[in-house]
Amino acid sequence: MSSQRERRFGRTVALTLACVLVCGIAFAGAVFVLMPSARDRSTPSAATGSPTPSRPTPKTTTEPTLPGSTDEPLPGVDTPATPAPSTPVAVTGTYECPGFSGIESKVPVQMLMHDTFAWGDDPPYKVGTGNGDINWRSDPYKKPSWYMWLHSLRWLGKGIQAGQNGDRKTLRHVLAIIRDWVQDNPYSWKGNVGAWEATMHRTNVLLCTRQAVLTGMHVKTLPAQYAWLDKALIDHAQFMIANFSGLSNHGTDESIALFGVGCTLKRPELKKLAVDRLTQAITTAIDPQGSTNEQSVGYAMFNYMLWGRATTALQRCGSNPGPVISERRQALAEWLALATKSTGYLQQVGDAVRQKAVAAAGTSLDYVASAGKHGAKPPKRAAVFDAGYVFGRTGWGETRPFADESTYSIRYGPARQLHGHDDHMSLTYSSHGRDILIDPGHSGYQLDKWQAWSKSQAAHNVMTVPSAQTASVETRLVQAAITPAWESYSLSDSPAADVTRKRDVLVLKDPDLVITLDRGQSASDQRYETLWHLAPEQKVTIQSPTTAVATKPGDKTKTHLLQIPYQQQPPADGITVVEGQQDPVQGWYYPDIFHRQAAPVVKFNRNGTTATILSAIVPANSTETVSYTTRTAGQLFFVDLTVGTRKTTIRVAPDGRLTRIK
Asked: Start and end of every Heparin-sulfate lyase N-terminal domain (predicted)?
């Protein structure tokens, strides 16, 4: 290794090690649910599936993980185009090449033959000499994901496919690159985190290459000159045995790859270990209600596909996956159907990119992905999940167009882990065929100020306390009520020392709108800000300390954001707007990890030891007038709200509980 390559290696190791260290729910018709222990789990507020609570379990491994580098659920990048079938497949005794997840699409054969790699939105980069001699320490953009995908070898996919179709020259070059990796990264490659994290992906590439050799050369037995390929597969299997990532999607992916080696090389002990690990993992990865342990809607979709692939792999090679995987996947499919917005996109909660729901025959996903055109309508329109999710909507297109329904999500539950965000109490909302309140999305896996912000409370629709040192904490769902025309939820937590936070949420149907009551209390003066993140291109006009209006030029709708005086009078600067701010970061949206758009954030502000902020988020047609009046009766507070010709009355109880009475 040249001195230049040694220096480059040192810089790469330092970068990756740094990444590792940093990562380490009144009136007739209402259904009331007490939280948590007194909850009647047979009520419609509970999701289909077992009533047993299921708390997410962290990874059991204590080994380091390169942030996010294991399996990024990006459309066309790391998810299959359609879910793996759940119906039985023919037993062939073989392990099918799972493909290359779209990584190969940026590296056509001509680029591959010149040892040039490309990933994401960065320019292609020549990583080798053109003869298959690769500098495996290449890291030109200082991005952990770029480096990991280089070591995954998935970028060789086009060449492997060409070789399988008889292109001997390309196949030889692919084999030269793979053998160069094997020689330059001898077992164990544990010290190189990018190579470590790519092991399961690279294992599948080796298996696909082995199949290409047999098919392309029209032989049934691997030629002796490629014996090193089988040795490399055994090394990869041994690495995954010794360095199991635990009961997360990463560990599941590893177990599938390990099973693939056992199936391909006729090693029953490897198959058995993989099946044992999968059997253990499924009950942690997906709970009886269908929630995953990833704290991410995007990763939930990924897990649905992943476990479908596991089922297919086991069946094809003659192993019985048993009933639990199928049962948990079915529950997850119903969960995902509720987690799909009226726009057809999944709720962008946790590490999640803008992604449409994928149809899955025999599940409610088929109905939501087709906007109600076919499939079975989900049995519920709102549900509470013990893992910390509330999903709801005004309907499934029964009385209005499917896309015109309003949908929402609320987060609570255990503190942040895996692919979760500090989004407890956060609310997302879509109505009138568009996003109203958004989650700013997934900024990617680079450990920088953008990722720190996108995961923080400040990036979500919550009451924040920017003057206090907040932390990831558990948030309790104290009560929930689901009725035909409204839902209410009460939440409580303590996001910082000597600071308590409560939020009551009321979601209405006809008129469609959201009311929240935030209360903060602290031992000393604090800054309290209730944040409302709006979609990009919305222009916000502050009309008074109590009213702001957001609209997009040319739109037929607008959003009224009302700060209704209750117990405290909003100050002169009670409403402020931030958009596209870099220091501190605020006012952005990520449709995917490669792109960032400025997006307005409306802040309702208070200072003091206590804060009481009553908000109304009211989407309306551009020609409709929105107005309200308030009144009191004893200890009760009422808001009479008018949207166009529709009127409703909200009652605020002394304990903060919100109820629709008209």
From this structure: 124-300
Report the length, in residues, of the chain: 662
pLDDT for the residue 486: 97
Quote the tokens at residue 422.
């500090």
Residue 274: half-sphere exposure toward Cβ, Cα within 13 Å: 29
Number of domains in the chain: 2
The rounded distance, in Å, linking the Cα atoms of 541 and 181 is 57
Question: Whole-model pTM?
Answer: 0.85
212 vs 7, 92, 515, CA distance in Å?
Answer: 36, 17, 59
Return the biggest CA–CA distance within the chain.
89
Output the CA–CA distances (angstroms, integers) from residue 547 to 145, 211, 551, 604, in the order listed. 43, 64, 13, 10
* Residue stretches of the chain with pLDDT short of 70: 1-87
Among the three residues 243, 267, 294, which one is the final residue of a domain in this structure? 243
76 domain-assigned: no
CB-count exposure of residue 554 (10 Å: 0-12, 13-18, 19+): exposed
Domain span holding position 486:
383-619
Residues 436 and 584 in one domain: yes
Establish how many alpha carbons lie within 13 A of residue 545's alpha carbon, considering only the half-sphere containing its beta carbon: 11
Q: Is residue 253 in a domain?
A: no
Q: What is the per-residue pLDDT for 86?
A: 53
Domain assignment present for 363: no
Residue 27 lies in a domain: no
Residue after which a domain boundary falls, among 600, 619, 638? 619
3-state secondary structure 104-131: HHHCCHHHHHCCEECCCCCCCEECECCC
d(CA 369, CA 341): 10
Q: Residue 525 belongs to a domain with what CATH number?
A: 2.70.98.70
